[in-house]
Sequence to fold (289 residues):
Amino acid sequence: MVGQERRTRSYILTAVGIVIAAYVLFPFYLVVMNSFKVQADIVTSPISVKGASFGQLITNLGAVINNSNFNFWRALFSSVVITVISLVLLALFGAMAGWVISRNNKKKWATAIYMIFIASMIIPFQVVMLPLVSTFRDAGNFVGVPMLSTIPGIIFAYCGFGGAMTVFILTGFIKGVPYDLEEAASIDGCTPEGTFFRIILPLLAPVVTTVTILNGMWIWNDYLLPSMLLGLNGKYKTLPVAVQAFVGSYVKQWDLILTAALLAIVPMIIIFLIGQKQIMGGMVDGAVK
Fold:
């Protein structure tokens, strides 16, 4: 009876897992499958494989990359610059903040700052998006440097929004790093800066990889923040925002929209598949330690 119950439970869990996986993967299937079709086949049969061909995918890719309104290479460059710089700053300053907080966790000011980071994680972006635009506009006017429609401005915003999760994970990991290592480095004459860069930061490589991949997927795929701070018709566009070029008031070029979306998500899928073990291991280490 016990063996039968276990098999039944296993079958139920497997069935539930298959349903959830199908639900999650279905939108991705629609994007990929319809990238192989012409506009007419997408409208008449979006789910079936009817009309899909590899030759049509090549045609769609050429139309997307060579479209002057989409400007693929410029959008790709903007996405790469924004993502890479944001990730470097998040990893560096997040590690610094996590190190200071974890080594002063018995002090009230460190606990208060840590609680503020955690509390900010539960605030929906939609609550702050309008005040954010207003604040960036006023701050740019005050310092004399435009914060809207510029790459430095959106990088600053991403560092702010991504800092909470980064500090949370890194702080949990650093708490498990023996303090004896820092004391030994101090006895040997190492400065606090040297201790951080020579001792602490190298030990954080696994969990830094985790937060970098997680933040990278979010920043690369984000649409709402770039559309607000850079604008839909601004000088700089990320790939998700540039896809808007194929959406008109009366006509939507679904073959080009879905092909452009496929181009935008493929890099992150590859990076996720390569680093999925680091993501799981780093999340567990950062949360448990």
